[in-house]
């Protein structure tokens, strides 16, 4: 955690094993084992007979990084963006490969999961079945690296998928896309399988943005009722959806993000008298704060 929060910055020499053993009240052998694991995972590097320092873990870290970030509550908006992008690339490649090398056994497994999905009624069941579907498609690729990478996303997905299904989403759309992916894999249409996987994954990300849009629309109406016409640029939607999505609580913190990023800024304008009756303003996100023009 000290490395991930930059308490121990990249290039910094870490305390000796004796000092760490005294701080954490454990034996030096335990500390040495921990250091060896951190070196193996790309967080530390050793200069033999000299010292151990923090490596550039963002570049040197391995697939375990997802689990570590999530477990320590350090999965921020940028990491979420990277996760969406990385998973999109990997799962499109998986669907494409599965359409070429799948076996009859693979097809039966995917089909049985889709049939089970149709019987799911509660969010936990839907989330578990969704996860099974993606794992089954990965298995159908018969690529051990693809399978390992998909498994590494479990640390994030376990906290996100159920929240996704707790929202009022079109579950029939998800099942429909699963069926399309299955059919294209079955028929050996690699390009089409890849296309439908992309559509499916974009759907999840867009659901979060749609919640943010609805919240901002409600805020626009409240402002209009007060005599000020407010319009929110798409950059505000992007910013609120990213900041307001949490790997533990899912979309629930969106309301808090909307208040801290948008409502407080608007309230300040009202209180200082900058908003006149019958005024029209456009709100944008400049990367750090709301700008109103």
Architecture overview:
65% of the residues lie in helices and 8% in strands. It is mostly helical. The protein has a three-stranded mixed β-sheet with strand order 3-4-5. The radius of gyration is 24 Å and the shape is flat.
Write a compact overview of the structure shown:
With about 290 residues, the protein is mainly alpha-helical. It contains 13 helices and five strands.
Unreliable sequence segments:
246-250
Q: Strand content of the residues, in percent? A: 5-15%
Count, helices: 13
Order of strands in the sheet with most strands: 3-4-5
Shape: flat
The count of DSSP E runs of length 2 or more, i.e. the number of strands, is 5
